[in-house]
Amino acid sequence: MSDLAAYLGATVLVLLAAGMSAVERRGARRPIRRAGLTFALCEGCSLALLAPGTVHALTRAGAPGLAVIAAGDAVRTAAISFLMLLACALNPRRRLRRRPWGHLAVAVLVQLAMLALLLGARPRLSADGELATAASGRWLLALRVALFAGYALWALAELFLALLPQADLAATRALRWGVRLILTAICAGMLWTLWSYDDIAGMLRTGRQDGSEDVVSNSLGALCAALVATGAVLGRSDATLSATARWFRLCRCYWLLGPLWSALRKAMPYIAFPQAARPRLAGRLRLEFALYRRVIEIHDGRLVLRPYHHPAVSAWVAEIVQTADPRAPEPSDALLEAATIATALENMRRGRRFTDVAEVPTGDSARVLTDLDSEVLWLSRVAWAFSRSPLIPLVMARLREEEG
Asked: For residue 228, what are the CA distances in angstroms to 2, 72, 222?
């Protein structure tokens, strides 16, 4: 289980680094991009290198176990250093953007100190992958773990403070959610770092420490990797998400227009486009063509129905609404248009024409639709009222009463 979590996290981070290096984003600041790419690559490599299966395999192959542990810790410490550089580059307040040379000096000192503490403790790697040392070296190994944990918490806190303002100020919704997921990953990283303090207690108490990562550590590492990758992909895929949302919106509108479109085509089959005019399209283009074809056919049917509009429909709808609830607001334009179409269809079936009505149908006089998408949304509301509103049957009953 520990190996599986470590290797999954490593794979996610290495693939993220490969994707960041393969896709050059216009307008991206190179220091931020390079620091993020190098952090993902180093952290992924350290997860794989410190996995228990990797340590055992390299040890059986003849590699010194302590050298493997030292190399894995060095790569992980380097990842934290690049995380610190990323935090400095992302800080929105210019006066708090420290020059990188100071952080580079701190990174080198931390690497040297961790190596010196490991050599000074003179530990040995047992067959089960644990570091063991004599009583004289316990404090040195405990100090080594505390040094790494403190350095990691510092870097994570700096990055959290740098990204926190962007959670609400990012340009798009997808980017805001991407930042929030990365902030969640930072919190999980802090928990992951704090978990290492059990190594300090174990070392001081028994003189033994897991040389490779345990199940909890590797699971938290895999969680961090998944959150970081998801946040990064979500922040970079705003166009994809917008296209997907648009596709679902078109599907919903196509479904909503169905009852109104079917009623108009049944009453006026001649408004239908000939099948020969249908182009060979696929995917979203095919859906858009079918949807806009319905819109045009509905619009043609509305034009044909103009002589059959009953002049009292608006008054009937308002009267029915007020009778049902005196405090109710005025009926919407979409409801008025739906009632007008429903009564006009009935008048057309009965051959009743009203030649003294205005040219513009009820509800359209103050509405200016500037594009086809606006027409789709408007007709979707009309179609919903036409097929779902309980007022339409009441208006139709009022029409039949007048004829009777």
From this structure: 20, 21, 10
Choosing from 172, 207, 236, the residue where a domain stops is: 236
| Closest alpha carbon to 80 in 112, 42, 51 | 42
* Angular region, 210: left φ>0, alpha ψ -120 to 50, beta rest: beta
Taking the C-alpha atoms of residue 171 and residue 160, their distance in angstroms, rounded to an integer, is 19
Please check whether residue 228 is in contact with residue 16, taking contact to mean a CB–CB distance below 8 angstroms. Answer: yes
Residue 167 is part of which domain span? 2-236
Cα–Cα distance for residue pair 97/35, rounded to 1 Å: 15
CATH code assigned at 114: 1.20.1070
87-117 confidence digits (pLDDT tens): 877 775 554 455 666 778 888 898 898 888 8
- Alpha-carbon 104 to chain mean position: 34
Is pTM beyond 0.85? Reply is no
Q: List pLDDT tens digits, range 140-172.
A: 888 888 888 888 888 888 888 888 877 776 666
Strand-pairing partners, residue 130, are: 210
Q: What is the DSSP code string of 52-88?
A: HHHHHHHHHTT--HHHHHHHHHHHHHHHHHHHHHHHH
Helical ranges in 91-137 per DSSP H: 100-121
Question: CA–CA separation, 184 vs 163, rounded Å?
Answer: 11
Judged on CB neighbours under 10 Å (0-12, 13-18, 19+), 352 is middle
Domain boundary among 209, 236, 263: 236
Q: Determine the length of the chain.
A: 404
Together in a domain, 70 and 56: yes
Q: How far apart are CA 275 and CA 349, in angstroms?
A: 26
161 and 22 together in one domain: yes
Whole-angstrom Cα distance, residue 318 to residue 31?
64
In contact, 385 and 334? CB cutoff 8 Å: yes
What's the number of domains the chain is made of? 2
Tokens of 298: 């509905």
| Whole-number Å distance between alpha carbons of 8 and 160 | 25
β-pair partners for 132: 124, 208
